[in-house]
User: Which sequence fits this backbone?
């Protein structure tokens, strides 16, 4: 019995180390990645359950993955939802990543929207992500910037998620936010101007909701 448990633990540890090595090789020092010609262009809504083909997600479009090992390039306004796999994910400002599982390396700009509810993430913040489009496939995404998106789409972001003690909130304009627990009780109510760091060490472990009162937009986050 103990031998089986030990073997399972060793297998899991080996797989985890292997995944970390793959992600490190893929993303080391890269905040300016080249989009290769083999990249698949995601338009509208697309589901991919396996494979290795890089994915380029256009503004206003969405990608869902549940397996495979991808490098994913999210343009502002793009959405990715992942429940598994081993991916390297670039998240530009105004793009949204919904992570429910998997082992993922996340490289993101400060105004990216990250919903991390499961899996094993690792983070690298890029002051700015500049895609190199020189080798990108023809018929690819129409390149947009965060300033071209509706303001309601990019009002605010938070990191890290899950959070232990300090929650960083960034906004594109002054606004008022509130944080509530699952019972609807208001834990924090505060005006935010561009960037604010909140100490929430006294919050109980569990799920909370950050709401922008100006737009009604809400982001879920976990307190560990």
Assistant:
């Amino acid at each position: 019995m103990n031998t089986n448990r030990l073997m399972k633990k060793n297998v899991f540890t080996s797989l985890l180390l292997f995944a970390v090595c793959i992600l490190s090789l893929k993303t080391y020092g890269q905040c300016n990645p080249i989009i290769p010609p083999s990249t698949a262009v995601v338009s509208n809504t697309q589901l991919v359950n396996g494979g290795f083909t890089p994915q380029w997600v256009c503004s206003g479009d969405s990608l869902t993955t549940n397996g495979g090992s991808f490098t994913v390039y999210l343009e502002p306004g793009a959405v990715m939802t992942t429940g598994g796999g081993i991916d390297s994910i670039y998240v530009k400002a105004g793009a949204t990543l919904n992570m429910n599982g998997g082992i993922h390396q996340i490289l993101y700009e400060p105004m990216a929207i990250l919903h991390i509810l499961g899996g094993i993430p690792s983070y690298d913040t890029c002051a700015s992500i500049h895609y190199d489009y020189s080798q990108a496939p023809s018929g690819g995404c129409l390149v947009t910037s965060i300033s071209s998106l509706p303001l309601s789409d990019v009002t605010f972001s938070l990191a890290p998620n899950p959070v232990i003690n300090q929650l960083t909130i960034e906004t594109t304009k002054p606004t008022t936010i509130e944080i509530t627990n699952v019972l609807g009780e208001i834990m924090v109510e505060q005006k935010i101007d561009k960037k604010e760091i909140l100490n929430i060490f006294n919050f109980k472990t569990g799920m909370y909701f950050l709401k922008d009162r100006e737009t009604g937009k809400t982001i879920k986050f976990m307190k560990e």
Remarks:
- The chain has two domains: 30-145, 155-223.
